[in-house]
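hey m, so remember when u said the tokens were messed up on ur end? i reran from scratch. heres the input so u can diff it against urs
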Amino acid sequence: MTCHSCQAYHQIGCSFTGARVAQCPGDFWVWETVLHENPFSRIMELGTAYGIFSCYLLMHCLHRGAEFQTIDTPGNPFWWNSGRKHSSGGSVIEHNNGRVIERLGLKDHYVQVDAFSPEGTKIIRDFVSQDGPSILFCDNGNKPREAKLFAPFLKVGDLLVVHDWKSEFYEIDIPPVVRENFEPLQEVDDKSATKFWKRTI
């Protein structure tokens, strides 16, 4: 299943602060709802890509006085490809990544590491296991493996979030630890491709 907003994203692109972002328009509405209704002390993002959705999450953390960290795999093209124009479906959206990222200081919150390496796994575990509610956002290259490996690190009250629901992550990919210890926060409709769970046990 591909949500209608995702189809629109691939046709015309989606932007945040005028820069292209790899999220559906409906994802922002769901994120806003969840972040306003659930207290959090930190957000860990797996999958920085061009960094614009990272900026969105960082802005929420700055507003709340929360910590933020984003991780991506060495070798991926990140925000230093800023200034490039993307043309799709007749619209042109600029990757104004560099200016936004510099102003927000995103590089201070960015770690380039393989999340599945011993070093990366330790960084994730140490970050989300701190006191206070943590949010772990799986949006890197292997979301089923990320959820299976890292969800056990989350505490009661923490949130697990997975992007590309029913396009890269399916019902069958939900690991046992999530089925047995987490509750879904919302039903994903055709306007969002992001799934949220909250640890209750």
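this time it looks ok to me. The chain has seven helices and eleven strands. if urs says something different then somethings off w ur setup not the seq
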